[in-house]
Specification:
The chain has 9 helices and 8 strands. It is α/β, with parallel strands linked by helices. The strands form 2 sheets. Strands 7-6-5-1-4-8 form a 6-stranded mixed sheet, with helices on both faces. A two-stranded antiparallel sheet has the order 2-3. Pfam families: Lipase_GDSL_2.
Length: 270
């Protein structure tokens, strides 16, 4: 099928943190997918409504209704990814978040769009009580994603389908957001589930990582703790979000010129 419009909804994952910085914006997997869609349709348009730090209720109330006004039919892809920020919070209430997520997907499907959903990695190699709690929460979250996708006929990009995606080398220094390699892998996975040209080797795991000396690991952890974890926790205490005051990077559908010439013969494998 030829898709002529792509509307992306969500949080930092879909905004593109922390991919390459292009013309003052993070590029991200969604821009990478838009490149391929634009190469297949001269009339292609793209909107990215995602804003970092947003909770599911904010994405549902602020982005989904807007996205629905842009839908022209099945030739419009609407991606929806929200809820991970909720799951990470101590006061997470799945009895509120999961039904809210499911109803938003139903509404998007009823608009006539091709709906694209995502599961979330349940494990990233971390251990301990907190990691176990998050893994259990994300497992239930993912069950909800798959169930509503089956109900409405949505397309799912499943992060847990291949274990290689849990490689920490796909993450930025904050250990939360994807780096350029990670965004490229996600983009290739999305292209595959949409039935579009993709790099066939995108599922190839990275080569084994060299051993990191204990002292270097300790220094890396200390740097991460002070540079990323403490500021994140401080925002939670103050009930602040990294997305406060920010606007969507492409709030209405625009004609999309390819941000970087697509090379479908390769993926980020090193």
């Amino acid at each position: 099928m030829i898709y002529t419009r792509f509307i992306a909804c969500g949080d930092s994952f879909t905004e593109g943190m922390t991919d390459d910085f292009v013309e003052g914006q993070y590029r991200g997997w969604a821009d990478r997918v838009a490149d391929i869609l634009a190469s297949g349709s001269p009339d292609f348009t793209y909107a990215n409504l995602a804003i970092r730090g947003k909770l599911v209720r904010q994405v549902v109330s602020d982005q989904v209704p807007v996205a629905m006004t842009f839908v022209t039919g099945k030739e419009t892809v609407v991606s929806f990814h929200a809820g991970a920020n909720d799951v990470l919070r101590p006061n997470y209430k799945q009895e509120i978040v999961l039904p809210l997520y499911a109803q938003a997907v139903r509404d998007l499907a009823a608009s006539g769009a091709t709906v694209l959903l995502f599961t979330v990695l349940e494990r990233t190699g971390n251990t301990g009580k907190t990691a176990d709690i998050w893994a259990a929460r994300f497992s239930e979250f993912n069950k909800n994603v798959r169930a509503i996708a089956q109900e409405v006929g949505a397309v799912v990009a499943d992060a847990n389908e291949d274990s290689f995606m849990s490689d920490l080398r796909f993450l930025a220094k904050d250990r939360l957001h994807l780096n350029p390699m990670g965004h490229d892998r996600v983009a290739q996975g999305v292209l595959e589930v949409l039935g579009l040209p993709f790099a066939p080797q995108w599922r190839t795991p990275l080569p084994p990582a060299p051993a990191i000396p204990f002292l270097r690991r300790s220094l890396n952890y200390a740097q991460w703790f002070t540079s990323f974890l403490i500021p994140w926790m401080w925002r939670r205490v103050r009930r602040k979000s990294s997305g406060d005051g920010r606007s969507a990077k492409y709030p209405t559908p625009i004609s999309w010129s390819i941000s970087r010439p697509p090379d479908m013969s390769r993926s980020s494998l090193s």
